[in-house]
Each structure stands twice: as structure tokens, then as C-alpha cells.
């Protein structure tokens, strides 16, 4: 562990003070603990405007793992990373052009009630709830893993100590999320995006200043770091992520497709559009999200270039095939190149903690709402939240807090057991499930001419999830490569890192209606319930 003297002690105290401020914000914004009505949603008179909702939507997309992953993949893969960054930037635009107008006014108080609003409680909603959990739990796990990476940056290299830090910091984050509920998540999400809007351009500007505003010098320095000699122009060449053969290019295309559709259609993002009164409002929300995310992705690419130019290449590749906590490494380089808690690293650590906290709050709220509304009691409609006659906490709010803590605990355990596994593994699993299971549910479930039956929902979710698990198990992400989940074992028979090439076709094929499916007419959700605001929206 590092030497806790002088400036390091002050830096650590400032970091702890920042953590305390985040906890205070969660408690300050928390709804009355006796009232469950505002746990999952804000009241009608406190809704955000369209622009603010779009700003919050951009914050939902820019979770901690996704931001670090994007910077890391640009740093280690050059030209390939630019294509991944472009896919991430275009994801809100895809939502705007494809589904936003169809989601407007869809209603529902959970993901299952949105895509299966024409079905009674039962198997259809349970399948939708399972799809949300399958996409959410890996993404929550990915949020906690950077906590162990940052511990190494300040000199904590012992495995047990890093695992303990993940558990302790993760428990604090989950506690903040459960206390703050939707209003707390809203405050944290806004604070996070305000910080990112300031920090990302600032780091990019620092990189440009370091190289005199010359992009060519940045690329030359990145190439020298990679080759250890005079620049050869190889940094921006394609094929550095998966290889320059046909298999490598197909893998890159599948990877970009996974990022494009996964980032756009994560189930917890659907909440931003279902409460929009008109299709034009929903499209405007996605447009604002694109206007925020696109410059952020450009800044992330510039930061990735700076990391490739300033951080020794061996430290970049030590983070894994897709890069890891590259932003922290860049901050160390800007502080002078020595590991430790310098001023820029402290700045980045505070931003990282806030990003993890904000993203985790929204994700856990979404998962808890789905369990309470879709999976509990066979998918039956839960008892409405609100104050009971004696003024005590409503049952659903108390259950929601317990469920948030449980899901958070499972994710913390997964992250602590895999501290050296790249968080991008969990991120891609989440995006693949979204593309293969969630997207078919949204597309077919919102059809008005022939709504999706419960049998089709079950086939789509359980069939595509099984296909994803089987293909992923035999992929290079699990075994047979140095950065796999099990690097010392080898049952790698599927050549691609993402299973989306199998999972997505399986999901869409199984979601198609069949002749034997039971009709769903006459099973619509009551209008009062359909118009109830979606509970998991963080604003």
C-alpha cells in the first residue's frame, strides 16, 4: 500500500469527503421513508421537461463501464476503437429514428407491463421481467469492477484487499441507491452528466495542450509507444482488436452492432420514452440524448488517443484486450507518470465513483420494479404504493429496497470474485441479451395489428438467452485467450467474442407469431394502469 503521508493523506480525506457528499445527496433527495408512492416514480408536477429528460437519457447511456470501455478500446485498438466509438455515438439516433415514436404513451409501471400491456399478469410478463434481469445484472456487475482497478492505481495490489474494497465500496453505493430511490437517482444522474460534460472536454484539452494542439503528434507518439521505435503509422490501422483477417473483421462488425443496438435499447432506457405524451416529444428526448452523447464520444476518442500516446503500451495491454481503467492511467501520466493519488487521479476517482453510483441507482431501480411488478406473485399486479392508514411504509416500497440490496449484493459478489476479468465481458453480455431478447420484445410487443402472445415472449426470451449462454461459453471471452474468464483452460470453438450473430437471429425468429399461439384480444391492461407513469424512470 502506498505511503500515507503528506499530500496523499489530504487527497484521501478529500475523496472520503466527496463520498460523504454523495451519501448526503441521496439521503436529502430520498422520499419520505413512510411513503412508498415516490420510490419508483416522481409525481406528475415534478416531471422533467423534454430537454432535461433527454439530458437524463444521455446519462443513462453513459454508465461508468461504458465510458471507461469506450476510452479503453480506442486507446488499445486505434482505428477499430473509432468504429466502436461511432457505434456508441449513433445509438441514441437509432432509438430516435426507429422506436421512440412507438414508445410514446405506451405506459406501464414496469418493463413487462410496457411490452406485455395487452396480456394479463402471468408467463408473458414473467418472461419480460427475466429478460430485464438478464440484461441488468451483468451491467451492474460491470459498474463495480472498476473499483478494484482504481485500487491498484493507488498502490493496493493485494488481491484480498482489492476484493474487500469492491465489497465495501459496492455496499456503500447500493445503500445510497436504496435510500435515494428515484429522486436520489435523478439528482445523482444530473450531477454525473454535469461532471462528465466538464471533465471529458477538460481531459481532451489537456491532451491537446500536451502535444501543442497537433493531432499528428498525438498519433505519432501513440505509434511510438506501441512499436517502441519510430512511428510506422500502424496505430490507426484496422484489425488491431480481433485481427486483420476475415474472422477479425466479422468479429469487429458484430461487436459494433452489439454496441449500437445494446446501448440504444437497454430495457431501463425504455422508461425515458413511455411517459412522453406525444411521439414528437419522445423523438425530441432521443435527439437531445444524441446531441449530448455524440460530443462525449468524440471527447472519449480524443482521451483514448491521449492515453495511447502518454501511457506506456505495456500498461495499456495489462488492462486487457479491450482496455480497462485507461482514464485513471491517463490521469497518472498527466500527474507525472508515477502511480499514486495525484490531483488529476483524485479528480478522475471522484468522477468514477459518481458515475458508478448514478448508473447503479438507475439499474437497481429498474430491476426492483420488474421483480415487484412482473415476477412477484406470478406476475400479478402488485399492491399500489402509497401510505397505509397508519402512516407506515407501504409493502411494495419496503420490498423494493430489499430487492435492490439483494440484486446489488449478487452483483458485488460477482465483481469481487472476478476482479481481474475485464468489465467489458459483462458489458458485452448485457448488450447481447438486449439485442437478442429485449429488442424483439419491444418491437413485437408494441405492434397494434398483431400483439405478441405470451408463448412467443417465452420462446424469445428463454430461447435466445439459452443460445447466448451456450455460444458465449464456447467463445474466446470465456476460455482459450490470455484475457478470458478462464485463461488457463481452452474449450474455444466459437471464433467470435460476441454471440450476437447467433443470439439476435434466434431471438427474432422465436418472437415471430405462430399459428398455435393463443390470441391475446380481451386481455388488455386497464386504461388507468396503462397510463400510470413508468416507475423506473430516474427523472
From TrEMBL:
Presence of the UniProt keyword Coiled coil in the record: no
Membrane topology: Multi-pass membrane protein
UniProt cross-references to InterPro entries, sorted A to Z: Na/Glc_symporter_sf, Na/solute_symporter, Sodium:Solute_Symporter
Chain ranges passing through the membrane: 7-29, 67-94, 127-144, 164-181, 193-211, 252-273, 285-311, 344-365, 402-419, 425-446, 466-485, 491-511
Renumbered residue ranges of the record's region Disordered: 517-539
Cell location: Cell membrane
Signal peptide: none
Keywords: Cell membrane, Membrane, Symport, Transmembrane, Transmembrane helix, Transport
Domain of life the protein comes from: Bacteria
Gene3D superfamilies assigned: Sodium/glucose cotransporter
Keyword Membrane in annotation: yes
Family, similarity comment: Belongs to the sodium:solute symporter (SSF) (TC 2.A.21) family.
Name assigned to this protein: Cation acetate symporter
Amino acid at each position: 500500500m502506498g505511503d500515507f503521508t503528506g499530500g496523499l493523506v489530504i487527497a484521501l480525506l478529500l475523496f472520503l469527503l466527496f463520498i460523504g457528499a454523495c451519501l448526503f445527496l441521496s439521503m436529502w433527495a430520498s422520499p419520505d421513508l413512510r411513503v412508498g408512492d415516490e420510490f419508483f416514480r416522481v409525481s406528475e408536477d415534478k416531471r422533467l421537461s423534454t430537454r432535461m429528460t433527454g439530458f437524463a437519457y444521455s446519462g443513462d447511456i453513459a454508465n461508468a463501464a461504458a465510458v471507461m470501455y469506450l476510452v479503453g478500446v480506442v486507446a488499445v485498438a486505434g482505428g477499430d476503437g473509432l468504429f466502436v466509438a461511432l457505434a456508441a455515438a449513433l445509438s441514441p439516433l437509432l432509438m430516435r429514428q426507429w422506436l421512440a415514436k412507438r414508445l410514446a404513451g405506451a405506459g406501464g409501471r414496469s418493463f413487462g407491463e410496457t411490452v406485455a400491456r395487452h396480456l394479463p399478469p402471468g408467463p408473458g410478463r414473467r418472461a419480460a421481467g427475466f429478460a430485464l434481469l438478464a440484461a441488468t445484472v451483468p451491467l451492474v456487475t460491470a459498474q463495480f469492477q472498476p473499483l478494484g482497478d482504481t485500487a491498484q492505481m493507488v498502490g493496493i495490489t493485494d488481491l484480498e484487499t482489492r476484493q474487500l474494497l469492491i465489497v465495501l465500496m459496492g455496499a456503500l453505493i447500493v445503500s445510497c441507491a436504496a435510500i435515494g430511490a428515484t429522486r436520489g437517482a435523478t439528482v445523482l444522474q444530473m450531477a454525473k452528466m454535469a461532471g462528465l460534460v466538464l471533465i471529458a472536454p477538460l481531459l481532451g484539452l489537456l491532451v491537446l495542450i500536451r502535444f501543442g494542439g497537433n493531432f499528428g503528434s498525438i498519433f505519432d507518439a501513440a505509434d511510438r509507444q506501441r512499436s517502441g521505435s519510430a512511428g510506422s503509422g500502424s496505430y490507426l490501422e484496422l484489425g488491431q482488436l480481433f485481427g486483420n483477417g476475415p474472422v477479425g473483421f466479422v468479429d469487429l462488425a458484430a461487436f459494433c452492432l452489439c454496441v449500437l443496438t445494446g446501448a440504444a435499447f437497454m430495457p431501463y432506457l425504455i422508461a425515458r420514452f413511455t411517459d412522453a405524451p406525444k411521439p414528437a416529444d419522445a423523438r425530441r428526448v432521443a435527439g437531445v440524448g444524441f446531441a449530448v452523447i455524440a460530443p462525449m464520444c468524440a471527447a472519449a476518442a480524443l482521451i483514448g488517443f491521449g492515453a495511447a500516446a502518454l501511457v506506456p503500451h505495456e500498461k495499456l495491454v495489462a488492462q486487457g484486450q479491450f482496455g480497462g481503467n485507461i482514464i485513471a492511467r491517463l490521469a497518472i501520466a498527466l500527474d507525472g507518470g508515477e502511480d499514486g493519488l495525484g490531483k488529476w487521479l483524485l479528480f478522475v476517482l471522484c468522477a468514477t465513483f459518481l458515475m458508478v453510483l448514478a448508473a447503479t441507482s438507475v439499474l437497481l431501480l429498474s430491476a426492483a420494479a420488474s421483480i415487484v411488478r412482473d415476477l412477484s406473485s406470478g406476475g400479478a399486479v402488485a399492491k399500489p404504493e402509497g401510505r397505509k392508514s397508519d402512516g407506515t411504509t407501504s409493502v411494495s416500497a419496503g420490498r423494493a429496497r430489499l430487492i435492490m440490496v439483494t440484486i446489488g449484493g449478487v452483483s458485488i459478489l460477482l465483481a469481487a470474485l472476478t476482479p481481474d476479468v475485464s468489465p467489458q465481458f459483462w458489458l458485452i453480455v448485457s448488450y447481447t441479451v438486449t439485442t437478442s431478447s429485449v429488442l424483439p420484445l419491444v418491437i413485437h410487443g408494441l405492434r397494434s395489428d398483431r400483439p405478441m402472445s405470451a408463448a412467443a415472449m417465452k420462446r424469445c426470451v428463454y430461447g435466445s438467452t439459452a443460445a447466448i449462454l451456450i455460444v458465449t461459453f464456447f467463445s474466446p471471452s470465456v476460455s482459450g485467450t490470455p484475457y478470458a474468464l478462464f485463461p488457463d483452460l481452452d474449450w474455444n470453438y466459437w471464433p467470435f467474442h460476441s454471440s450476437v450473430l447467433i443470439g439476435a437471429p434466434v431471438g427474432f425468429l422465436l418472437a415471430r407469431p405462430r399459428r398455435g399461439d393463443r390470441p391475446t384480444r380481451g386481455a388488455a391492461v386497464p386504461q388507468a394502469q396503462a397510463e400510470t407513469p413508468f416507475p423506473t424512470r430516474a427523472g
